[in-house]
Each structure stands twice: as structure tokens, then as C-alpha cells.
Amino acid sequence: MKNRFFRNAVLVLVSVILGLGFVSCKKESGGVKKIHVAHTNNYKPYDFINDHGASDGYEVAVLKEIDKLLPEYEFEYTPTSDDDLLIGVLQGKYDVGTKGIWITEERKKKYVFPENPIAASIIGIVIRTETADVIRDLPSFAKYSGKLVPIGAANAQYTVIDEYNKANPNDAVKLIAGDSFGASDGYVWVNEGRYDAHVDIKLSFENNVLKDGAPYSAYRDSLTFIPYKGIPTWPIFNIRNKKFAEDYDRAILQLKENGTLSKLAVEYFSEDVSEFLK
Questions:
Q1: 199-210 core/surface letters (b: 16 or more CB in 10 A; e: else)
Q2: How far apart are CA 146 and CA 221, in angstroms?
Q3: 36 CB contacts (<8 Å, ≥6 apart)?
Q4: CA 31 → CA 69, 74, 249, distances in Å?
Q5: Comparing C-alpha atoms, which of 144, 227, 150 is closest to residue 182?
Q6: CATH number of the domain that 107 lies in?
Q7: Whole-prediction pTM value?
Q8: Considering its fold, how many domains does the chain have in total?
Q9: I need a labelling partner for 127 at 20 to 30 A (CA). Which of 30, 104, 144, 157 fits?
Q10: pLDDT, tens digit, for every residue of 10-55?
């Protein structure tokens, strides 16, 4: 009796497992592929966790709109750290990652980059406000002194200024490769006159200097940010997801054409950052 009961129980269990497998196969055969999206959890307004505990931010919002245009995919979002995102996409734990990423030759060897960026970072220089009447852009800064806080040679910001110098040899700034100084060093050194400008990202300047309670809010009146250009930011795809990257490109072009990207940019950045890419 016990053996017959055990055999019946096993048969029921096997039936359940087979049934679950059938359901799973039905879903997969329906053509819907789950896409695991990783994003940083505290990089406002690009990617963050909102007060309701949900994935939010401009880049996340764009991906959610892309999900709507691609019925063959279902996106699932995972907030995480910078390192886990980069390693996870590389190893296939995540299909795509987004965190305000700049493209580099080294990253192009590890990940698939799409043809179209998802957003932009606005890069520029931080100067003393007292010099704002004569320093209006990089050429006028070069004429003023060109004394720039050193930038680590491996930093993507170094490449941006190096490219500017090559394109503007008559208005080149003094680019010195140094250690990877923190933003705080640049703010302090410019404020005290040791250097006349510090390369920075507009968002970093706003968070570190302009916001109430910012760590360097004491410099709010003495430092000014001068925008230079927009640097495209990109989602990165696992090397096996070239087809998905192509589908992303198709969808994001639709969002650009119908004005969705501009609308979301104004919502999250209070300005259309894509304008800086033109």
C-alpha cells in the first residue's frame, strides 16, 4: 500500500513538473524574451530608486518606452552598483546595463554598443565667478591662462580636452596628465586660485556645489559652470545581444522622431540634453 502511494505521489509530482515545463515552453514559444536590465540605484536624474521603491530616472524611463515598442521583449529592472552592472553585463548576468556610460575603445572590446545613444552628459569647466566676464568658453579660457586642473590620463574627460586641443591648436588649453583627483580637489584649487578652471560634469557641479546642503555649497557664489558640449551616454549590451541592440536602435529612433526623448529629458533634466549633441 505504501509503495503504491509513493508511486502515485511520484507520478503526480512528475505531472506537475511537466505541466510547469509546458507552460514555460508555451511562454517561450510565444516569442517573448525576458530582458534583464541593470541600472545604478543613486545617479539622479539618470537612474535611481524613487520614493516608492521603483526603478526610475531618465534612462530607465526611455527603456520603459522602448519596451512598449518591442512586444517581443519583456524588460525586468534591477538596481545595482556600478561594478556589479559592468561585470554583470560582461558575464551575461544582465542583458543590458545603463548608468550614464561614456563610450571608450576599451569598453567597445567588452560590450556591444548600439548606434544611438540614450542620453547625454554636459561637460564643461568650472571657473571662478570673478572671471566669468572674460571666460565664456574654452577658447576664451585658453586666452585667459589655460591653467587647467590636471586630469588622469585614463579619465574620459582627458580625451575630451585632448580632442579639443587637437581641433583648436591656436586656442589650446594646458592639458596635464595627473593623478585621478576628486571633484573636491578641483573645486578647492580653482577657488583658491591655484588653477583657473576644472573640467566637470554639469550634474556633478549641481550636486556638489549648487544644491542646498551640497558638500561645497560654500562655493556657490564664487564658482561658475561654463558648458562646453554634450557627451553621449550609452546603454551597454552583452556581447550575445547584438540583435537586441539593433531592435533598441529601431525603437529609440521612433522615440526621437515622435518627441518622447525631448519630453522625458525636460521632465528629468529640466532641459533637452539632446540639444547639446547637435
A1: bbbbbbbebbbe
A2: 22
A3: 76, 78, 93, 94, 95, 96
A4: 15, 10, 20
A5: 150
A6: 3.40.190.10
A7: 0.78
A8: 2
A9: 104
A10: 443 433 333 334 333 333 446 799 999 999 999 999 999 999 999 9
